[in-house]
Design a protein that fits this description.
2 copies of one chain form a homodimer. Chain A is of the alpha/beta class and 260 residues long. Chain A has 12 helices and 12 strands. In chain A, strands 8-7-6-11-9-12-10 form a 7-stranded parallel β-sheet. A 5-stranded mixed β-sheet of chain A has the order 1-4-3-5-2, sandwiched between helices.
Chain lengths: 260, 260
Amino acid sequence: MPTLTSKDNKLIKTAVKLKKSAKFRKKTGLFVAEGVRICVDAMLSGVVIDTLFVTKAAAEKNAAEYEKLSQYSKNTFTVTPELFGYISDTQSPQGFLCLIKTLDKSCQFDTIKVNGKFIALDNMQDPNNMGTVLRSCEAFGVTGVIMSADCCDVFSPKVVRGSMGAVFRLPFIICDTIADYLEAHPQLNSYAAVVDSDAEPLTEVKFDLPCVAVIGNEGNGLKPQTIDSCNHRITIPMGGKAESLNASAAAAVLIWEMIK
Amino acid sequence: MPTLTSKDNKLIKTAVKLKKSAKFRKKTGLFVAEGVRICVDAMLSGVVIDTLFVTKAAAEKNAAEYEKLSQYSKNTFTVTPELFGYISDTQSPQGFLCLIKTLDKSCQFDTIKVNGKFIALDNMQDPNNMGTVLRSCEAFGVTGVIMSADCCDVFSPKVVRGSMGAVFRLPFIICDTIADYLEAHPQLNSYAAVVDSDAEPLTEVKFDLPCVAVIGNEGNGLKPQTIDSCNHRITIPMGGKAESLNASAAAAVLIWEMIK
């Protein structure tokens, strides 16, 4: 198996650029997943793994995972620990990193099932929040996630890691705007989550199926046109003093109430 | 007002060390809060602000906040933008940072009120999670938070920022172990949050007051001795495939159910 040692190697340069640039991920149709567990999750979900990078020590320590992954991946390279630190996005790299073909899940959205329960994200900007939301969606069995094009990149390393691999398994679609999407899918009962005591309190909301709960930007909430495009305005009643919850915490409570 | 320009200035060195070292925060009894909003929140909550650092541009841009804060703070210094970037913990510094006396809130815990609703954190390690949990606690009106001594430092910059200032306002206490604390406070009805389908599902739990929901470590959950010390074992039923929720997402759902 070939060993890469130089930062100037073309593949190494590609990996670093994929880690950093959403534009480059879009252009190449590739993204990065890092860590033994996440790489195995990727394989088990059936994605195309283009390249696997491992350190010798990590391959020996995780021999069973390494064997399966290196057979599954189109290409496998060992890299020196120094070089791995260079392509890694984490402070304590595990020595497994792979380049994966981005997923087109649009077909999974062709038909909105009558009993579907969806989450829509409108201009969510923080990849840690998005990763946590995707993880919550999978944990609670959300049917699928609809994201506006101005959300952060779902294929960024932080989202992939924070989602604990949910990004591989969860159906999602990226649309121009949530308002457009809802207009094109009038059968979806839409619930805009707002911070407004006049909105319907979550404790009293009855989610009619198929339904979608729409969550906004961390600082600014939902766009006015997104709210206008929804059938309902709902809010999480808060007894305390804080203005609002963290977006991923609010999402967890919304998903919980929608699903349970 | 004095202007600091050198990285070798003793106060600047102190600020940087306070940003990085929990041990140094403990030794000096000081911690760092950064950002216009957070610094104003600190002042409004009545904490002792020892030192305020601002850039000239930020002081001019936020003149009203600057005037109040500089009157409130014992000492105020302007620093150059370069120097501010050096003491700052954020990628886009707002030009306001203050050093605050750590808070002793033990007295607020002297009596567990009969209608109190508490959260306990057992070995929570991620400061982003802790900040989000504190923010959720404040938003939902949790009475107070009990933390084991092996949690991450509540005065770390990430916790302070992620909590949106809740750390200034929310009663909390740090104890050696949650098990010891519960043993010393037998009047508290304790609910250990576990990932175990045999535990009582959250949908069926009736929280008897005063109560405490106990949340564990991100990777390992609760320690066995913590679970043993609790009256109840509860779990968040999940229909989906993920093994468990992110700790702060699980906390949000638990707090929501406990409070609503």
